[in-house]
Amino acid sequence: MPLLETHELKKYYGREPNMVRALDGVNLTVETGEFVAVVGQSGSGKSTLLHMLGGLDQPTSGYVVVEGHELNGMSDEQLTIFRRRNIGFVFQNYNLVPILNVYENIVLPIELDGNTIDTDFVSEIVNTLGLDGKRGNFPNELSGGQQQRVAIARALATKPSILLADEPTGNLDSKTSQDVLGVLKLTSTQFHQTIIMITHNEQIAQLADRIIHIEDGKMIREGCGRR
Ligand SMILES: Nc1ncnc2c1ncn2[C@@H]1O[C@H](COP(=O)(O)OP(=O)(O)OP(=O)(O)O)[C@@H](O)[C@H]1O
C-alpha cells in the first residue's frame, strides 16, 4: 500500500464562467521514504495540492488517502488531530513562535498532543540539523536559514508519516537555500523521511528522487532527480 495516494483530485474555485480549476484530476502515489518535488509555475496549483495532501482544505471531488486513512471523510476535529500526528509542515516563512526558544519551538507539537518527549530522538534531530548550540536562542536571534532548520526540526520531532514543504527556501538567498536543501536531503536519507516539496524552481527540484511537473492543475510529466 502506498503511503499517500490521490485519486482524480479536483479543486475548483468560484463558478462558471469564472471558475478556476486549481486542481483538475491529480492521481499521485507516494511510497514510504520517497523525496518528491512538485514543480510548476506560479498559479499552476502547487499550494492547492499541498493543502489537499495535508488535510488543510477539502477537495471539490476525488480523495486523498494517507496511511490508509481517507482524509475527506474526516471531521475538522479529526483532521486537526490527524495532521498533528501524521503530517509535518514546513512553510516559506518558518512560522516559529517568537516567545519560545529553539528547543521549546521544536517540542511544542509533541506537547500540544500531550505526548512524552523522546529526548534522545529530539537530540538526534537537533544535532543532525546543526542546532545544538542554539537550543536556548529565540527565533529573532537566528538567521533565516537557521530558523528554517528549526522549522524542519519541529516538523520532524513528531515523527510524521510525511513532511510537506511549501517553497521551503523561498525566503532564502541561494547559498542558504543550498544549505537548507542539504538538510532536507539529509533528513530524507538519515531518517528515511517521506518528503513532498513544492517549488517553482527546476534546479531545486533536482534534489528530489522524483519530480512531478504540474500545469493548470494537472500533472503533465514525471521524472527523476539527480539525487
Ligand atoms: N481561495 C482561492 N480562491 C480562488 N482562487 C484561488 C484560491 N486559491 C488559489 N486560487 C487559484 O487557483 C490557482 C492555483 O493556485 P495555487 O496557489 O495552488 O498555485 P501555485 O502553483 O501554488 O502558485 P504560487 O507558486 O504563485 O504560489 C490560481 O489560479 C489561483 O489564483
UniProtKB/TrEMBL annotation:
<dbReference type="InterPro" id="IPR003593">
    <property type="entry name" value="AAA+_ATPase"/>
</dbReference>
<protein>
    <submittedName>
        <fullName>ABC transporter ATP-binding protein</fullName>
    </submittedName>
</protein>
<dbReference type="InterPro" id="IPR017911">
    <property type="entry name" value="MacB-like_ATP-bd"/>
</dbReference>
<dbReference type="InterPro" id="IPR017871">
    <property type="entry name" value="ABC_transporter-like_CS"/>
</dbReference>
<keyword id="KW-0813">Transport</keyword>
<dbReference type="Pfam" id="PF00005">
    <property type="entry name" value="ABC_tran"/>
</dbReference>
<dbReference type="InterPro" id="IPR027417">
    <property type="entry name" value="P-loop_NTPase"/>
</dbReference>
<keyword id="KW-0067">ATP-binding</keyword>
<comment type="similarity">
    <text>Belongs to the ABC transporter superfamily.</text>
</comment>
<dbReference type="InterPro" id="IPR003439">
    <property type="entry name" value="ABC_transporter-like_ATP-bd"/>
</dbReference>
<keyword id="KW-0547">Nucleotide-binding</keyword>
<dbReference type="GO" id="GO:0005524">
    <property type="term" value="F:ATP binding"/>
</dbReference>
<feature type="domain" description="ABC transporter">
    <location>
        <begin position="4"/>
        <end position="227"/>
    </location>
</feature>
